[in-house]
Amino acid sequence: MGAASPPETRIRRIRSRVLDLPLPAEFRPAWGRNEIQHSFHVTLIEVETVGGVVGITAAEAGREAAVSVDRFVTPHLIGQDAARPESLIGVMRDAEILGSPVYCVEIALWDIAGKIAGLPVYKMWGAATDRVAAYCATGEVRSAERRVEDCRRIVAEGFKAVKLRFHSDDPRDDIRVVEAIRLDLGDRLAILVDANQAGVLPGLGGHRQWTFPIAMDVALELERLGVTWLEEPLPRHDYAGLRRLRDRIHTLQLAGGENNHGMHEFRLLIEEGCYDVLQPDAVLSEGVYQLRKVAALAEAAGLLIAPHTWTHGIGLLANLHLAASIPNHSWFEFPHEPPGWPSTALSQMLVSKPWIDGDGYLNVPERPGFGFELDEELIEHHTVATYG
């Protein structure tokens, strides 16, 4: 039998607060056809130990996530040792059978472990680096003229890469945006493209799924234009189609995985040869430490990891620690689409808003745990429900 756990690290309470956070202007997400967004929901989750250490995390969802935590997670974690996250991950996996995914809870447990150890989490995990190159992730469909203006600003802000959304009715219109940026900025900005074809969105006006020939034609055009990667060109479980597409291109990388759940799905993506770049999210895809195991499998297969981060500031920082702890990280997603969704909107629940340094990198916080510092006044003002 193992040694008894210190009483002060046992979990005494889990509290969830549902937040409705405003955006500074209308945001028209490319992946939600005809949708106009004015705010977004986050469920802030705090796991408190008997000794008073509080681990923080958040779900990219509203009351459904809070109910899932309250019903399917809290009863199984109360009294357990928070400093033993690996022994508790099964609770989060099983919770998805009955409720919404709550893999994000593992972030809070590692936040506690880091605070107890007095170390930032990425250093507990080996610290491959202390900063990661960020790309500016845009989120709307805009004209070529406006995107050129955007990209001039993005370069001036210090970014070395941008991600564009391909959601026009005719993909040739999207390709013309890339051509315009290349003509204006040359190679000063690496270009990534996201088609968001892995799931059922965009939705409100009807989902328009790419066929394999469309994906192939777009991929060849992007390769001609020197684009770095094409993200989610086909449904997330179309392993054969993704592999066939990857086999027919040369310099263009295929990226995806944000809509896949569980280590077993990522193992399949690797074994089937679907992607060059895997994009799991520590909030959505699997436990944050479990994704380090996915990263190890990817490293052995010669693949890169570029976490999806478009959830909230807490998720962004958790994924930053993950990326900085592994040797095979790629560009790091940094959502920033003013005026509707500037980076400050994503991280408004944090006192310190992450931003790139002069070289276009995100530096990992050095505070113990994940380094979350909550803006309690703002959180209190925008809380719409509390559980636990």
Structure overview:
This protein is an alpha/beta fold and 388 residues long. The protein has two domains: 7-118 and 374-387, Enolase-like, N-terminal domain (Enolase-like, domain 1, 2-Layer Sandwich), CATH 3.30.390; 123-363, TIM Barrel (Alpha-Beta Barrel). Strands 4, 5, 6, 7, 8, 9, 10, 11 and 12 form a nine-stranded mixed sheet that branches. It is 35% helix and 20% strand.
Task: Give me some keywords for this one.
388 residues; alpha/beta; Enolase-like, domain 1; TIM Barrel; 2 domains; four-stranded antiparallel β-sheet
CATH level-3 fold name of the largest domain: TIM Barrel
Name the overall outline.
globular
Helix content: 25-40%
Main beta-sheet annotation:
9 strands, mixed
| Overall mean pLDDT | 95
Number of strands: 13
According to CATH, what is the class of the largest domain? Alpha Beta
Computed over alpha carbons, the radius of gyration is 20 Å
What letter string, H or E per element, gives the SSE order?
Answer: EEEHHHHEHEHEHEHEHEHEHEHEHE
Distance between the amino and carboxyl termini: 33 Å
CATH H level, superfamily name of the largest domain: Enolase-like C-terminal domain
CATH-defined architecture of the largest domain: Alpha-Beta Barrel
The number of distinct helices, counting runs of at least 4 residues, comes to: 13
Number of domains: 2
Unreliable stretches: none
